[in-house]
Amino acid sequence: MIDASDQALAALKQYFGYDSFRQGQAGLVEAILEERDVLGVMPTGAGKSICYQVPATLLGGLTIVISPLISLMRDQVDALNDVGISAAFVNGTQSADEQGTVLSQATRGDFRMLYVAPERLETERFRSFCQRVPIDLVTVDEAHCVSQWGQDFRSSYLGISDFLASLPSRPRVAAFTATATERVRRDIVALLGLRQPEVTVTGFDRPNLYFDLMKMPSKNKNPWIIAYAKDHQDESGIVYCATRKETEALAQELCRAGLKAAAYHGGMAPDERNRAQRDFVEDNTPVVVATNAFGMGIDKSNVRYVIHHNMPESIEAYYQEAGRAGRDGEPGRCTLLWNESDIVTRRRLLDSDVVNERLSPEEHEAVRFSKRRLLGAMIGYCRTTDCLHRYMTRYFADDGSMQDRIGKDGQAVDSQHISRGESDHAANASLGPKEGEQLRTNQLLEAGRSSADGDGKFSCGNCSNCESTFETIDVSRIAQTISRCVHDLNQSFGSGKLVAVLRGSQAQELISRGLDKLPSYGALKDETQARVRDVLSQMATDGFLSISEGRMPIVGFGPRAGETAQPDFHYEIKRLEIRKTTAVSQA
Ligand code: ADP
After folding, report:
1. Which of 63, 136, 174, 409 would disulfide-bridge 59, Cβ 3.0–4.6 Å?
2. What gap in Å lies between CA 441 and CA 438, rounded to an integer?
3. Contact in structure between 129 and 106 (CB atoms under 8 Å)
């Protein structure tokens, strides 16, 4: 056994020039050196690579790094060789000859680290190579890809445990990810076959980031973004858009406004993309407008702002992308611009999701269900009036409670139902407090800052919700009337019809169907359409109503519907009253 602390510190200094480990790193390095499996869950920028690179320099045999990010392997390997750690990669960008050369060099013991994509593990050539060389450590990067419950499931990750079993002697296995909730963590442990792993989950809060949430009244969010970028011309920023088309249009608009901006998306030629990336990293282009293809592994520490033009599909995706701001520890601003049509678009995308052939129809439905839950939590973030830092850290710290409260599309659900569904899946996972794993959790907010609880007194001072005031409006009567109308309509109409009936619309279609004869017809004619819609959305979020999936969503009752019929039913919504943040001077 190696004396972990001294040698690891010496290696950290020698190769990377750092004097001390960051939070969570030392424990993981030590555990690896003590021949244990590990799982490190750390946010982007926390320094996961060091956790396996340092041990790799101290172990006698080879370290294999499994990573899905083929496009980054060359950079990673170059960086390692630059600091004196001999490393190489084998992937499909090389010819068969080149691959052969790397493998024979590796057989000779020329490298400490070898990077491969998970697909490589299934090839005969690579498997036979692994029979011949002593492998001390297998690192699985982006380990959440093994789970169908996360957002980036890759079926090739399911082959990793077979690969490990095929090795002459089982090496230690170190899995890392930036995005793993409890459920995904269980999957990682079970599906990679980690043995009594040391599990380290470092604090997910990024106190230097300002979280800013803006509901945009109009569909065109570009003028706000352009004004912001103009105000922050000396800073580096990323604007994430949902589609390639939006990316290019906004980049052009920014350029027309006199700013240096570039687009980046998967449809561009590789050299164009590389140029855009390089210009951004070298500070020649301050703003990149990108799809989510941009950023995985880009090591640019001085990004000062990340703006999301649309609501992403999950909190995981949002946190990872927004988290690219302020990696140097200096202040960063993460702004999410959203509106109700983003929610509609996301739901539609989810329903038209391509079917993965490897999955049975039941599995496919389960994945879709899980994605709806992820989307539900994202919608919850957009709608919450609570501290945004706290929302995030609770989400990632989840003991199941938060996710159980948020159902598909943000509707609260019967937690019994959800837990039952999950425990089937989790039954074969070996992670649990009783099974001897050491879970080190350091949730900064949970431990230190969340002293006030849910009563509005809590303030992080670093998010737009905590800096704004919300007006509380009693909408009990409106909510009860909406429920009555859902009943009148037999839970078989969409929200458009529902609102039209409630407001006593004279539309011919409504009258010819006799909907004007319903008891609730015109019952909310004195309320604005926006108010009725707001209450309806909020009721869906809180579980009083449910909105079905599909092209024509139908409004029905949710699990809490019965409460609205109680005589003492009281219901409030919060509306933004004063927004104190002043990020843009003239937007
Ligand atoms: P992650 O993979 O978790 O996103 P990286 O491994 O890319 O993070 O590390 C992010 C940055 O932090 C890198 O620039 C890295 O060199 C730096 N870093 C990592 N560990 C330390 C440390 N112990 N001290 C100082 N800087 C560190």
Report:
1. 136
2. 9
3. yes
Enter the tokens of residue 147.
């789970």
CA distance linking residue 339 with residue 362, whole number of Å: 33
Distance from the alpha carbon of residue 299 to the mean position of ligand 1, in angstroms = 9
Query: What does the DSSP assignment read for 123-145?
Result: SHHHHHHHHHS-EEEEEETTGGG
* Higher-scoring residue by pLDDT: 165, 183: 165
* pTM score, whole prediction: 0.69
Ranking 35-49, 145-159, 246-260, 342-356 by mean pLDDT, the lowest is 342-356
13: its two tokens:
């200094």
pLDDT > 90: what percent of the chain?
A: 57
- The pLDDT, as a whole number, for residue 4 is 58
Residues 137, 55: contact at Cβ < 8 Å? yes
Atom 26 of ligand 1: nearest residue by CA position: 18
The closest residue, in CA terms, to atom 24 on ligand 1 is: 18
* Rounded Cα gap, residues 126 and 222, in angstroms: 49
- Is residue 197 a contact partner of residue 189, using CB atoms and an 8 Å limit? yes
**Complex-level ipTM:** 0.98
Q: Identify the DSSP state of 493.
A: B
* Dist CA 240 CA 213 (whole Å): 15
pLDDT of residue 411: 38
| DSSP secondary structure letter of residue 22 | P
Residue range 285-320, pLDDT digits in tens: 999 999 987 876 576 889 999 999 999 999 988 998
**Rounded average pLDDT over 506-519:** 95
| 4 contacts 35 by C-beta, under 8 angstroms | no
Start-end of H helices in 232-324: 244-256, 270-281, 315-322
CA 538-531-222 angle, 5° bins: 85
Q: Are 383 and 351 in contact (CB under 8 A)?
A: no
Which DSSP string corresponds to 400-454?
Answer: SHHHHH--GGG----HHHHHHHHHHHHTT---SGGGT-EEEE--HIIIIITTS-S
Ligand 1: which of 5, 21, 49 to mutate, judged by most atoms within 8 Å of the beta carbon? Answer: 49
The string of pLDDT tens digits covering residues 196-239 is 999 998 877 888 999 999 988 777 899 999 999 999 999 999 99
d(CA 135, CA 167): 9
Pocket residues: Cβ below 6 A from ligand 1: 18, 21-22, 25, 42, 44-50, 299
